[in-house]
Each structure stands twice: as structure tokens, then as C-alpha cells.
Design goal:
This is Beta-carotene 15,15'-monooxygenase. The chain is of the alpha+beta class. The protein is built from twelve helices and eight strands.
Length: 339
């Protein structure tokens, strides 16, 4: 509890000091003083955003989380982008100097990150070949580096999309030794849904693209790229369903329901597993439940306490009910009750 209170206090101090610096810099930008000393004040404001604020983040937050100082480098780039948006045209020339200083720094950061990921995967190679899923290994590798967990989750989600949509067609379903596997894609309507939605988006997307081209080329291409991304996402989700059955072991349940939900559920957290005839949940129930898209669940896992489930786009959610559609719900329920 002491650590949590200290973290909250440090976070409050960081926010307060950051707001003071940002408001002061915004006031300077609007003042006559800035017009008279544009070059030196632009450098000073840039220094605040690309050096002072990231260092405050490190000393108040990241250092308490045992993160290395290189973990703040992405926020240096964010600070520079903020300065570019805030500084008026006369000061943009001064920012060119800063830009050429930041490019080598960011390239060094990316190179170091890729090296750390490569080293972690190399060290885990034996474990990967025997037990682990490649996407799970990638997640562990990213979290073991300086990359923040939320950014890592979003990155892993995007990598998963292209892995399942392009590179996983010859892969076999992931089944661990000593586990029972339960599929959930054979009897569901998800494949039909994916094909129908993709067909509609393809046909109507072409028409919408041609129509929007007469008004705005960038908007037309943004819409078309968005449609293609969604189609790839749906395809990857179905392929992930085929390759990731639910795995039940003596101690836990591995739930990797396509790209829609992911968690390892320890047996001690489970209160009951029951077959259900699904009825629409209330708003309050939806907030603490996770449900597959489109299909009607036939199994409900009630938990003793809230657990964190990783969902689409790397978003996490705290739930105490997990709803699933399984091809063989009765067998799944019976094995869970025996355990």
C-alpha cells in the first residue's frame, strides 16, 4: 500500500509540474516577448518539451517502476511533435536544428529496442520450440525491454493481425503437452459473418471510393485503407480461432479466443463453469463481462474475483464473467467440474 500511495503522489507531482511548464510555455508563445526573442525562446520551449518533461516522467514515474532511462526516448519524439504543432511559423526554422539532432537519437533507440527483442527471443528459443506460442514470446520480449506495456500490447496486436492473416496458413493448432483442447470455430457462424462483411465492404468500398474521389482524394484513400485493414483483421481473427483452441490443464485454462480475448485463467479464480442459453446482458453486466463478437455464447465462466482480459487493439478490461462459444460445451463443462 505504501508503494501505491507513493506512486500516486509521484504521478500527481508529475502532472502538476508538467502543467505549470506547459502553461508557462504557452503564455510565452502568445506574448510580445516571444516575437522579440523568437530564436532563443523557441530553443527554450523545445528544451522543456523534449528534455525537461521526459526527465520529469522518468524521475517521478519510470524510475519508481525500475525502468531504464532510455524508456523515455519515445516521449522525446512526442514532445518534439507537440512543439512543432504549437510554435508559430517564425520559429519553425529554429526547430530544423532540433529535428536533425533527434533523428539519430530515435534511430539509436529503435536499433537498441530491436537488439533487445532479438536477444530476448534468442535466449527463449529453446522454450519457444517446446512450450510457447510465438505471439506470446513476442509479448514477453517487448515487456522485458523498455517499451511501455500499453504500447507493447498495441504493437503485439498489430503484429498478430499480419501473422495470422499472412504467415500462419501452414501452422498447426497450438496445443501444449498435458492439456485438453476445445475448438470454438467449427460450429459457429463467425466464418460466414467474416465472408459476408468482407464482401459488403469490398463491393460498397469500391463505390464509396469512386464517389469520394470526386470530392477528396485523401479521404477516399483513407476510407479504402480502413476497409482493407478491417477485412484483414476479420480474416486474422478467424485464423487465430482455428489455431488457438481453449486449453485446459490441471492448474489453469488458456483462453485465446481469436484476437478478441486473451488470458491465462488460474483454477483458483474460477467459481463455476456452466452451460447457458444466452440472454442479452444489462449495461452494468456488460461492464464486468467479456463476450465474443456476433456469436451467442453457450458457456459462462463465473469468477471469484476480477481478472484482466486482453482484447482487440491491446485494450485490457477487468471482468468477473467470461462468456464463450465452444463446439463441445458439455465436455468442457464436465472437465472443468472434475478439476
Amino acid at each position: 500500500m505504501t508503494i501505491i500511495k507513493l506512486y500516486k503522489h509521484n504521478f500527481s507531482y508529475f502532472i502538476a509540474m508538467s502543467m505549470v511548464i506547459i502553461l508557462f510555455d504557452l503564455a510565452i508563445l502568445q506574448s510580445i516577448l516571444y516575437r522579440e526573442h523568437e530564436q532563443i525562446l523557441t530553443l527554450g520551449i523545445t528544451l522543456d518539451f523534449v528534455v525537461v518533461l521526459p526527465l520529469l516522467l522518468y524521475f517521478f514515474i519510470y524510475r519508481r517502476l525500475n525502468k531504464k532511462i532510455v524508456s523515455i526516448l519515445p516521449f522525446v519524439l512526442v514532445g518534439y511533435i507537440a512543439v512543432v504543432l504549437l510554435v508559430p511559423d517564425p520559429g519553425q526554422k529554429t526547430l530544423e536544428i532540433v529535428k536533425y539532432m533527434l533523428i539519430p537519437m530515435e534511430l539509436l533507440f529503435l536499433s537498441y529496442g530491436m537488439y533487445r527483442i532479438y536477444q530476448t527471443i534468442k535466449n527463449d528459443k529453446q522454450h519457444l520450440s517446446e512450450n510457447s506460442h510465438p505471439i506470446e514470446t513476442l509479448r514477453r520480449s517487448l515487456e522485458a525491454t523498455f517499451i511501455p506495456s500499453k504500447i507493447a500490447s498495441l504493437f503485439v496486436h498489430d503484429v498478430s493481425i499480419f501473422y495470422y492473416a499472412i504467415f500462419a496458413w501452414r501452422k498447426k493448432p497450438y496445443i501444449r503437452d498435458g492439456s485438453s483442447a476445445y475448438s470454438y470455430h467449427k460450429n459457429s457462424s463467425w466464418l460466414i459473418t467474416v465472408l459476408m462483411v468482407s464482401k459488403i465492404m469490398l463491393i460498397e468500398g469500391i463505390g464509396a471510393h469512386l464517389l469520394l474521389m470526386q470530392w477528396s482524394h485523401p479521404v477516399a484513400w483513407i476510407l479504402s485503407i480502413g476497409n482493407i485493414y478491417i477485412m484483414i483483421l476479420l480474416l486474422a481473427d478467424y485464423r487465430a480461432m482455428c489455431l488457438n483452441p481453449l486449453l485446459v490443464t490441471e492448474h489453469e485454462i488458456r483462453i485465446q479466443y481469436g484476437l478478441q480475448m486473451s488470458l491465462y485463467l488460474d483454477r483458483s479464480y474460477i467459481e463455476s463453469v456452466s452451460m447457458i442459453k444466452y440472454e442479452k446482458l444489462s449495461k452494468s453486466e456488460c461492464k464486468t463481462s467479456v463476450i465474443p463478437l456476433v456469436v451467442e455464447p453457450n458457456v459462462c465462466i463465473r469468477l471469484k474475483d476480477h481478472v484482466t482480459v486482453m482484447g482487440l487493439f491491446g485494450k485490457s478490461k477487468r471482468v468477473d464473467h467470461i462468456y464463450l462459444f465452444l463446439d463441445k460445451p458439455h465436455e468442457f463443462q464436465m472437465e472443468c467440474q472434475e478439476l
